[in-house]
Each structure stands twice: as C-alpha cells, then as structure tokens.
Design a protein that fits this description.
This protein is mostly helical. The protein is 78% helix and 0% strand. Helix 9 packs antiparallel against helix 10 (195-219).
Length: 229
C-alpha cells in the first residue's frame, strides 16, 4: 500500500514539474514574441467574435505570465473605455479563479518556494495571516498597485488562507481602478501628445502613488497583528 502511494505521489510530483516547465517555456515564448498589435490582429480575425476572442485571450495568457497591462491596453484600443472595461472585468473573474486554484492545488510547492525566497518579510507575514479581514485588506492593497505582478498575486493567493469568496470580492475591488486606467491608456494610445493621453498617464501615476502610500501605511506595523480586527 505504501509503495503504491509512493508511486502515485511521484507521478503527481513529476506531473507538476512537467507542467511548470511547460508554463515556463510557453511564458518565455509569449513574452518575447507577442505585442499589443499582434493581440489586436488576433482579436480582429473575426469582428463578430472579437469580444469573445479578447476575453479568452485574457483568460489564457496570464496563466503563462504574459504581462496583463499589454492585454488591457490592447482591449482599450480595440473596444474603448466602457466595452473594454466590461470585457476585461469579465475575463479577470474567470482568470483569477483559474489561477487561484492552480496555485492552491497544482503549483503549491513551487509557489511556496518562490514566496520564501523572493517576498519581503513584511508582505510574507501579512500573506500568511489566518485573519480573513487582514488577508482581504492586504490582497486589496496589493491588487490596487500596478507595481505588483497580477500573475504572481493570483498564484500566491492560492497558497494563503484566504477563502475563495473574499478572494474574488477583494480582487474585483482591487483591480477595478487599474483596469479603467489601462483601458483608458489603450483608448488614447494612438493620440500620443494629446491632452487625453497625458490625462491617462496622470491617472496611472496617481494610482501608483496612492497605492504606494496605502501599502506603506498599512504594512508598516499592522501585518504582524493577527487580532488586528
């Protein structure tokens, strides 16, 4: 029985390693070879299905660590502020769900190792809190800031104690400002030098500054307090 269990565990382990290698190789290819214009051309292969193709693109590419701002800017350029925000928002809900469960069940050991070796003690202490309110607030702050990698946050959330519903609600609130800002940049990307384009960049700068201030104030001395609420 033990031998059989051991064989199954080894199979699972090797499967995980294989999938991580595949994701790594695909990620390397995608990041080096896909641009905003290529995404736009891909989506516009069939105008009738453009929205669906865009949503599927957003659901799939971030799994392979493709930079999300590139996709969102393409969405803004293709669909404008209102439709682009709606389509992106729909895709975010599906994508973050998939990546949360991948991080929790498939890549848990790998993600844990990454957090141990590459994440600061302050954020690490916050992420491993068992208090759902603390976790939700930390995740909201991290989501709010465009400095943090959307892809990594999805996977890392899966290994924390945060429950799925608070995770989704916090994600929705946290990514909303960033989606609107990057969609707006995409809508005005062809108007470089115009008032609209500079306003878009100003909103991005404000988002970075505000999220950085909130992060510093919160993480300063609250992350180690389990009974903070």
């Amino acid at each position: 029985m033990k031998n059989k269990l051991s064989i199954n565990e080894k199979k699972i382990k090797y499967t995980k390693i294989f999938l991580i290698i595949i994701i790594g190789l695909v990620s390397y290819f995608l990041v080096r070879n896909i641009s905003i214009e290529q995404i736009k051309n891909w989506v516009l292969i069939n105008n009738k299905w453009a929205a669906i193709i865009y949503i599927l693109t957003f659901i799939i590419l971030p799994i392979f660590f493709f930079p999300v701002p590139v996709i969102v800017v393409a969405g803004g350029s293709l669909f404008g502020l209102v439709k682009g925000s709606i389509y992106t928002f729909m895709a975010v809900i599906v994508n973050t769900t998939i990546m949360y469960f991948l991080g929790r069940f498939l890549f848990k050991d790998f993600v844990n190792s990454f957090v141990e070796n590459h994440v600061s003690e302050k954020i690490k202490n916050a992420l491993f809190s068992k208090n759902q309110k603390v976790l939700s607030l930390v995740l909201f702050i991290i989501r709010l800031s465009p400095i943090f990698s959307y892809n990594l946050v999805n996977y890392i959330s899966g290994i924390t104690e945060i429950k799925f519903i608070p995770y989704i609600l916090t994600t929705i609130l946290g990514v909303l400002p960033g989606i609107i800002v990057f969609i707006n940049i995409g809508e005005n990307v062809l108007k470089i030098g115009s008032k609209e384009f500079f306003v878009s960049l100003l909103f991005l700068l404000l988002l970075v500054i505000i999220s950085a201030i909130i992060s510093k104030l919160f993480l300063k001395d609250s992350v180690n307090k389990e009974n903070w609420w």
